[in-house]
Structure formats: C-alpha cells, structure tokens
Amino acid sequence: MTERAFTDRDGLSSRTWYKHLIYAPAKHNDYGFNSFPGISDAIENAKSLNSSDSWYSVQHEVWRVARAITQASLVLSGRLT
C-alpha cells in the first residue's frame, strides 16, 4: 500500500506510462534514473522556457510529490488503508 501511494494514475507529465513519482528512468539518459522525475523534468523545462507557466508546472509537480508522500505516511501510520 505504501509503494502504491507513490504512484499517480496520470503518470509523469511528458511520459504518462511512468506512474511512479519518486523514481523513474532518466529522460535523456537511457542508463540512468531520476529521483523525483516529474520535478526534475519540470525544472529542466522551466529553465529552458523561463516562463511563469513553466515555473508553475514545477510548483505543481512538487505538490504532486508532497501529496504522494503524505498518502504514504498515512498508510505507514495506519490511518489510511
């Protein structure tokens, strides 16, 4: 249940087939992986575009991960089954 809390049915924004919000293969490196891949991808995108919408996307990805961590915490404490 805890591991499932780290997944999101919508997946990563540009790679919807990856559902895990904590780790996934690196976007530009076939042999590597990223921790918090949605946040990492959003930051790279925001740095290249440098628009308010792209930085809002970073904030949204951080919120998604925070929500997943909260859900996992509830599962581990027995308050969410």
From TrEMBL:
Protein's UniProt name: Transferrin receptor-like dimerisation domain-containing protein
Transmembrane feature ranges: none
InterPro entries, A to Z: Peptidase_M28B, TFR-like_dimer_dom, TFR-like_dimer_dom_sf
Residue stretches making up the Transferrin receptor-like dimerisation domain: 2-76
